[in-house]
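> forwarded from #structure-qc
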């Protein structure tokens, strides 16, 4: 025969599992509804052409500044 303490633990585990399942189900449902709403809206570019060019220029400058010394070091060693 199962003790009262074991029954309480089993009941707690079962209720916890059920609650977790409900929470996960609701979160997934919310995510899928959000994706559905987003996909039904017309797509607009986040950045205009000029902003994308500026972003690319800043990115390239940052990469050059960060990796420049490494590239110079490797070049001086004949890589």
């Amino acid at each position: 025969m199962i003790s009262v303490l074991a029954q309480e633990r089993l009941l707690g585990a079962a209720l916890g599992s059920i609650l977790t399942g409900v929470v996960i189900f609701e979160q997934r449902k919310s995510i899928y509804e959000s994706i559905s709403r987003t996909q039904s809206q017309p797509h607009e570019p986040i950045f205009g052409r000029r902003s994308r060019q500026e972003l690319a220029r800043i990115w390239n400058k940052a990469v050059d500044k960060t990796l420049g010394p490494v590239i110079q070091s490797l070049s001086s060693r004949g890589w």
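QC bot note: Residues 4-40 form the longest helix (37 residues). Helices lie at 4-40, 49-76.
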